UniProtKB/TrEMBL annotation:
Its EC number is 4.3.2.2. Residues 337-457 form the Adenylosuccinate lyase PurB C-terminal domain. The keyword Ribosomal protein does not apply. PROSITE patterns: FUMARATE_LYASES. Pathway: Purine metabolism; IMP biosynthesis via de novo pathway; 5-amino-1-(5-phospho-D-ribosyl)imidazole-4-carboxamide from 5-amino-1-(5-phospho-D-ribosyl)imidazole-4-carboxylate: step 2/2; Purine metabolism; AMP biosynthesis via de novo pathway; AMP from IMP: step 2/2. Belongs to the lyase 1 family. Adenylosuccinate lyase subfamily. This is Adenylosuccinate lyase. It comes from Oryzihumus leptocrescens. It catalyses: N(6)-(1,2-dicarboxyethyl)-AMP = fumarate + AMP; (2S)-2-[5-amino-1-(5-phospho-beta-D-ribosyl)imidazole-4-carboxamido]succinate = 5-amino-1-(5-phospho-beta-D-ribosyl)imidazole-4-carboxamide + fumarate. Keywords: Lyase, Purine biosynthesis. GO terms for molecular function: (S)-2-(5-amino-1-(5-phospho-D-ribosyl)imidazole-4-carboxamido) succinate lyase (fumarate-forming) activity; N6-(1,2-dicarboxyethyl)AMP AMP-lyase (fumarate-forming) activity. GO terms for biological process: 'de novo' AMP biosynthetic process; 'de novo' IMP biosynthetic process. Residues 18-316 form the Fumarate lyase N-terminal domain. The keyword Lyase applies.
Amino acid sequence: MASLADATPPIALGALDGRYRGTVAPLVDHLSEAALNRERVRVEVEWLIHLTSRGVVPGVRSLSEAEQARLRAVVDAFGPADVAELAEIERETVHDVKAVEYYLKRRLTEAADSDVASLSELVHFACTSEDINNLSYALMVKGAVTDVWLPRATALVDAVAAMARDLRDVPLLAHTHGQPATPTTMGKEMAVLAHRLRRQLARVGRAEFLGKLNGATGTYGAHLAAVPEADWPAISRAFVEGLGLTWNPLTTQIESHDWQAELYADIARFNRVLHNLCTDVWTYISMGYFAQVRGQGTVGSSTMPHKVNPIRFENAEANLEVSNALLDVLGSTLVQSRLQRDLTDSSMQRNIGTALGHSLLAIDNVSRGLAGLDAVPEAMAADLDANWEVLGEPVQSAMRALAAQGVAGMENPYERLKELTRGRRITGEDLREFVRGLGLPADVEKRFLELTPATYVGLAPQLVDYLGE
């Protein structure tokens, strides 16, 4: 039997790099191993520029703008050949960050300007590996969230909100505990989900991405020993903030990763609300309230030709569950570290891309699933017309109010409606006959004789307007 492991090009082990590669590919520029190495090179380059431009080390000149541009070009041009070169160096160093240091020193040595080459020992100056790694991961995650995940998630939520506005006035029989309940509108129910999702997006949008550069145990020990007169906390803060990150002044060898746990909890919560949307829409489809008709060239069943399965929502559910399992373990593990450092976080953080990838894949599936739906108001109306007993609530509520006002004959309203409606279906005529026998004031009786399950939706349509535009 031929070995699939030996196939060329290599066959992906996981679904994200195989079947679903096209959907999650934008994350490769941010959360892959190659992206990590590119960000490491970026941080090392910027640290060298920062040290020289601020005159931190006595007697070391500042780099010219042209020299700085050449160094930054190393980052901008970082590609497959550089990935391969770094891998070759790492086979010798057996240390990924040291390999990046040697890689960048090679580039400096190759520079035509010998003075620039002479600065090679300032590459990785006074840094522990985690000084480079924590900043690299912060930049990677920030880019992945702000440039890829958040725009896709926002577009999806906007689509849900638009759907809510479109279905603002379409009456819907609600179900609480799986039983027919007070009617609402489909638009209001979709608006609830859009509002919940937007709150989580707002939290993600406010996320802080923290970073540190303070040495092997967070004390600036090597920095101070080499250049005692420098204000190292100020230098560190300016550098971290110059990268667009929030400076963390108090750490061990590692940046504590609390910000990551906070962010992943917010994304996981978004995922869980989205999962709720999937199960609700799936249920509405099964009830016939939505038809899957647009953009369907699919085979719903290999043997039942009438079927169009809600596969987008089922696929999304599975991917949201995988994403949350990873996000939860990332959040719980990354906030722990033995004393001043252990290596658990290093292996754990390599799963960030997979966690966000499954979430992104779910967002894509839900977006496509919603785009293929058409509401079926007739099916919703039929269920409403088959459940007149839900009007027991407004009738007994009005009787309570009248009793409190001293109107005679309004005693025991709940019990009387319970006797009429519980455990059985009633028709519109059954309810109207009951209303006529209550002795209600004429205006109240008229209101209830005209009321139907489809018109008993309260302020549901107006509530959709709280979503705004």
